[in-house]
Design brief:
Distance between the termini: 53 Å
Strand content: 5-15%
Structural class: alpha+beta
Number of strands: 10
Shape: globular
Helix content: 25-40%
């Protein structure tokens, strides 16, 4: 019997039991196929049909609801983890993965001996987990993920996933400035900028249905709160919130760049990138025909 089909006496696969244990500790999890690639968690995303990049490692602009795979699918909800689609995935899974940023953690992925030697000289000691070729150094605190910050070194935190390889050894230290500076020193790709909904979206001769500016202000404040209070499925929560705001305020021309900026700021504080915010906003507008 292979590792992929090991089942415990309680009827749960080894990977599913591990996932539930991690979720109970508020660590968002997801199943991985062989090759450390996430499963497509719905039929619409099979064979990368939704445009996930590459090999399902990055969520695509799917609306089933969006997105349902890669790091964005990581959850601590046991009902989702044990649902029919996921239960079948756990039986075929090659490993358990988790979303470090969702757990408030950052993983410095050291891929070889040279990278480990560098880390020991330049980073504070922390909890260390052996990997196939190197080590994962875990720090308490989250940041934007970045690959290739130096030879053999990747940073996995928000909008990324890491394979669960156990708790390792040592005491976890706070995320140091030295790690943040590694990502900051890497040139950032250009990100799209959101645009306010054009006033031309207002029907000819129509009038704004909002009786006072306070109506819109209250709606934006509630949307910010909904995003801020999301604990799992943050990307989906952002998309659904954008959809709700646009369904109420998107056709009268009241939304401004300042309002949209507040929503984007709330989403980015939860770990979303500007690009994912822009994608979620565009998907919501498309869904509503704006």
């Amino acid at each position: 019997m292979t590792q992929h089909t090991l089942v415990r006496r309680d009827g749960l696969s080894e990977h599913l039991r591990t996932a539930l244990d991690l979720a109970a500790s508020r660590i968002p999890v997801l199943p991985l196929r062989a090759g450390k690639v996430p499963f497509a968690n719905c039929r619409r995303c099979t064979d990368n049909a939704c445009g996930g990049r590459p090999n399902m490692k990055t969520p695509g602009p799917c609306t089933c609801p969006a997105p349902c795979h890669a790091w964005a699918a990581a959850t601590t909800d046991p009902d989702v983890i044990t649902s029919g689609v996921w239960r079948r995935a756990w039986l075929r899974a090659g490993a358990v993965a988790y979303h470090p940023g969702g757990a408030g953690l950052t993983v410095v992925d050291l891929d070889n001996d040279d990278a480990i030697t560098w880390a020991r000289k330049n980073l504070p000691a922390t909890q260390t987990v052996p990997t196939t070729r190197g080590e994962h150094w875990l720090y308490l605190g989250r940041m934007q993920s970045a690959n290739g910050v130096r030879p053999g070194v990747d940073i996995k935190s928000t909008m990324s996933y890491a394979r669960w390889l156990g708790f390792g050894t040592g005491t976890m230290a706070a995320l140091p400035d030295a790690v943040r500076e590694l990502a900051a020193s890497k040139p950032a790709a250009a990100r799209p900028v959101p645009h306010a909904v054009a006033a031309s979206a207002l029907a000819a001769g129509g009038e704004c249905p909002h009786r006072t500016p306070a109506y819109l202000e209250r709606g934006i404040a509630m949307a910010e709160q909904r995003i801020t209070e999301a604990t799992t499925g943050v990307h989906h929560a952002v998309y659904r919130t954008f959809l709700a705001v646009l369904s109420t305020h998107g056709r009268c021309g009241c939304l401004t760049d300042a309002h949209i900026g507040r929503l984007f700021t709330a989403a980015q504080a939860k770990g979303e990138s500007p690009r994912h915010c822009a994608d979620a906003w565009t998907n919501a507008r498309t869904a509503l025909g704006l």
